[in-house]
Amino acid sequence: MLPIPEPGQEVQWVAQHLGYLFSDDARRSERFVGTQAAADAALEALDLTGYAERRNEVLPLERRGASGLSPWIRHGLLTLPRVFKLATGPSKDVQKFRDELRWQEYARHLYARLGRATGSPLRNAPVVRSTNDVEPWDRSMRCISVNLDELESDGWLVNQTRMWLASHWSVRNGADWRIGEQYFFTHLLDGSRAANRLGWQWTTGAGSSKVYGFSQSQVRRRAPELCNSCDHRDACPIGEWPDEPELVSVERDDRVRHDPDSERTAGPKKVERSSSPEVVWLTAESLGDDDPALAAHPGLPVIFVFDESLLQALQLSSKRLVFLTDRLAELGAERALEIHLGDPRKVLADRPLATTFAPVPGWRHRADSVVLAELHPWPWLKRPGSGSVASFSAWSNRR
Ligand SMILES: Cc1cc2nc3c(=O)[nH]c(=O)nc-3n(C[C@H](O)[C@H](O)[C@H](O)COP(=O)(O)OP(=O)(O)OC[C@H]3O[C@@H](n4cnc5c(N)ncnc54)[C@H](O)[C@@H]3O)c2cc1C
């Protein structure tokens, strides 16, 4: 068991207790704090005016329309239904914003259904052409270096620059998309296998029939100051559109078209209770005040487990661990909390738990060997069905 972090001491706490589980020097994101208070304040301040037009803008910063809510959405500090409901503003902007929330929901449905299979190409295998002596992301280009700096220091990027980097890596340079995906996952505070793999699969042609090409024209349009200050401005290496990448079609997983067990994918519809819970188990999927199990048991202690072998293997950037610790420090000041480092199945063994279903394979794997005294449904925006998830539009039409 680990001591409860003092609010304000999260970085030191992570360095002291989780020091061998991350890949950089202990530090926090330069932009995001992982508390419920910060999440609520960001949602309260959300102004969607101009969102539809400016969501894809990159620089200058004041032109950006993106909400920046994704790190809190990722960890359940803001649930999709809550954000969906509270979105206000001009109807065109609200509609576009809600569509993006649906993309998040779609990513979750796809991952809940296919799980680890989303780590392999769903439709095409882009042919890997890059050799080790070619750096897929050339940091002498401002459109690469400035965006990688943002990823590495803030743990976040707007959607547009995620597509630029992913396309540059795989479509133009022929590097393996799964390695680029892993680099994003290491640094993104919102990094999820669901949305990150969806983004990489769909940008690089692995999961779709269309590939996203990246060239100087997008930078000139969305972030002109990058070209103006770049050493390559007069001989831009991405001045031309990239060649069409070579894609080899792969055998499709039948579950993309039809889910043979959508009840399992979606989890329980209502609370399933088999005995009296003694503790609430919170996971990194759902850390917020609105977590259904947490909200249902204000008097019970809470338990959170840092999965040691998982983190050791992942070697994430420390800013992700600090983000989670921000929330644990906040929670520890409000309620009885236990924080453990180890194997969740061993730590939780024999303790009757109240917890919330999480639509990810890791949760199922652990939940199979603990005592689920009370299992709460996942707060879906729309409960998964058995229809096609082959594309966003196929999924939207068949919901
Ligand atoms: C290569 C690549 C990797 C990505 N990796 C992730 C990831 O690991 N985690 C993640 O949450 N998103 C990922 N995205 C999707 C998207 O880029 C981010 O959700 C978005 O940029 C987050 O910023 P925001 O909160 O300001 O978004 P906004 O534009 O304000 O949108 C509001 C919310 O809608 C959801 N959303 C918006 N766009 C998408 C999208 N294309 N796919 C899924 N959900 C979306 C997010 O929850 C977001 O917070 C990725 C996209 C690409 C192209």
How are the elements arranged and paired?
Layout lengths: L9 H8 L18 H9 L6 H4 L15 H5 L5 H7 L4 H24 L9 E3 L15 H13 L4 H14 L4 H11 L5 H12 L11 H7 L1 H5 L18 E3 L12 H5 L5 E2 L5 E3 L10 H5 L5 E6 H7 L3 H15 L4 E6 L1 H5 L4 E4 L4 H7 L4 E5 L15 H6 L2
Parallel strand pairs: 4-5, 4-7, 5-6, 7-8
Antiparallel strand pairs: 1-2, 3-8
Helix pairs in contact: 1-16, 6-10, 8-10, 9-10
The protein binds flavin-adenine dinucleotide (FAD).
Explain briefly what this protein structure is.
It is built from 19 helices and eight strands. The protein is α/β, with parallel strands linked by helices. It has a six-stranded mixed beta sheet with strand order 3-8-7-4-5-6. The chain has a two-stranded antiparallel ribbon with strand order 1-2.
* Share of residues in helices: 40-55%
Task: Using the 3D structure, state the CATH architecture of the domain at 121-249.
Answer: Orthogonal Bundle
Largest sheet: 6 strands, mixed
Radius of gyration computed on alpha carbons: 21 Å
Element order: H for helix, E for strand: HHHHHHEHHHHHHEHEEHEHHEHEHEH
Name the ligand types. flavin-adenine dinucleotide
Which structural category do the helix and sheet elements fall into? Answer: alpha/beta
Tally of individual helices: 19
Give the strand line-up of the largest sheet.
3-8-7-4-5-6
Structure write-up:
The chain is of the alpha/beta class and 399 residues long. Among the domains are: 121-249, DNA Cyclobutane Dipyrimidine Photolyase, subunit A, domain 3, CATH 1.10.579.10; 262-376, HUPs (Rossmann fold). The protein is 42% helix and 8% strand. The chain has a 6-stranded mixed beta sheet with strand order 3-8-7-4-5-6. The protein has a two-stranded antiparallel ribbon with strand order 1-2. Helix 18 links the parallel strand 7 (353-356) and strand 8 (372-376). Helix 1 (10-17) crosses helix 16, helix 6 crosses helix 10 and helix 8 (159-172) packs across helix 10. It is globular, with a radius of gyration of 21 Å. The mean pLDDT is 96. Flavin-adenine dinucleotide binds at residues 55, 66-70, 73-74, 100-101, 103-104, 107, 158-159, 162-163, 166, 184, 188, 190-192, 195-196, 198-200, 203.
